[in-house]
Amino acid sequence: MFVLVAWSLLLAATASATASTLQLEPSVRIRLLGTVDTHIDLSEKAGVDQIAQSTTSWSRNAQIPHGNDAQQTPVWYRFRLEGRSPSDTYAIVWPGIVGRVDLYCEAGNGTFSHQSGGYDSREKSLTDHILVLPDGAYDRTCYLRALTGYYLSSPSILLLAKALKLQWSMAPSYGGFFLAIILFNLLMFFVLRQRPLLIYAFAVTTALLVLVTDDVAWRYVPSTQFSRELIHEFFGWFYFALTAYFAHVFLDLREFDPKLDRAVIVLVALSALDLVAGLFPSRPPWVDDVTLAFLVLLLLAIVVAGYRAARRGYRGARFFVVGTIGVFIGVTTNVLVETFALPVPNIVVDLYAIGVAWEALWLTVALADRMNEIARENENLKVSRAELQVLAELDALTGIPNRRAFDDHLQVGWTRAVRAGTSLGVIMIDVDHFKEYNDAEGHVSGDLCLSKIAQACSASMMRNGDFLARYGGEEFGGILVTQTDVDIATVAERMRIAVAELAIPHPTNPDGIVTISLGIARMRPSARENPLDLVAAADEALYTAKSLGRNQVATRLLSTN
Q1: What residue ranges do the domains of the chain occupy?
Q2: pTM
Q3: Domain 15-160, classified CATH 2.60.40.2380, yes or no
Q4: In this structure, what DSSP letter does residue 134 have?
Q5: Cys staple from 521: which of 244, 424, 537, 554, with CB 3.0 to 4.6 Å?
Q6: Is 296 exposed, middle or buried (0-12, 13-18, 19+ CB in 10 A)?
Q7: Residue 293, pLDDT score
């Protein structure tokens, strides 16, 4: 009986000390956590000799404790790699939240070969999250020590070519895309001066810094483990804070959705809990879980804000929702995979970066759509302003320009004549005995009479550039670019005849019909003179025509030198 018990204990110890055998296949990525035996070194001091001799505390379902910025827990993995083709080279890869890995493989006589990756004792980057497996790592027992931080992150084994491709896609590819988005938004901001463009340029810059501070930056910038994690975590939080601020501005949440706006602000503050807790040497393990919950709720609130903005008719919000859903899925999936060490395809590991890139693309489309909408609104505003300008310078009764338009046109015509050295002529027109007509026929007939006179006089000005306006009451004014008094007198006489031919009955006018009197003046303007002098001269000529019996044209001679 004693022999049997001893034999059973020996078998159990031998079984527990046997490394997990992994069959290598070029198409398979092997995640070590949950696949091979794992040992948690809570003392953080065990060496490979002590670990190799341990026959207990190995399990494929080890409960890895949460770490923090200043403390990462050593996790040992024990495995044996078999089935490697001589032409294949494999590597170990790990996420950025694993600070350092050390690989020990049996070399005979109780010794171990050693390779390391991550950060050395001087906190300098050793590799870009890739450790190439040496020839001595195959067909023998190996022990991998990995410093694990926040989440249940796991190193993986895969072909070196795939590992290099994986690392390439995370840094240069996404980095180049983000740089293009940043430059586009900055360029559009300097052209259009729209604040959302600048805000989103900063947001994408921060997303790029999240990728850079994952590992690349620390190859060139001196750092400590504490500073690396704190800076990386800060940029992660700041990206979501800027995204929330962009939603606040882009969707006009303060005006249209104030309750949700306040909820987003509160969630941004609460999601900084992990960042603040990271400033202290230790923190409760629940801080990470609560912070992640706040972060997921923040992204969900931003998605809901976009959906509600789209429901109220904001066209650009549709693109906003499509982009934000992408980053929500990417971040949530990334958190779940790292927290629960889920076995997933390679592309899922990159879902955070893919989600951010997706969001950057669609929010840029949303911004472009908003700029187009603003351009359309500005164009409509310009047209409306032009229409208002026309209405402001139009006499509602007669349908011809009013006194304001007359003054503007006179100033423009005067300036052109000074520059070109040409003459400018003015015709002042007054309806004879109009007050008496108005008293006898009534105001409605008087208004109709003025409208007919305006149309008749306007039709008498046959050249492009000639201008007629209602000057006030029963007075009209014309402006002509002309070289001789005969030209302007001809136009004035044509007006007088056109009105007489209307044959509008006038009971108190000696001629029995409505007639007009006209005064004309012409001069060659100079910078020393005032255009009102020309109007005053034409007005004096009009007074002369009326004093000579009305229904005639009088001329006021001015110097044209």
Answers
A1: 15-160, 167-381, 403-556
A2: 0.58
A3: yes
A4: P
A5: 537
A6: middle
A7: 87
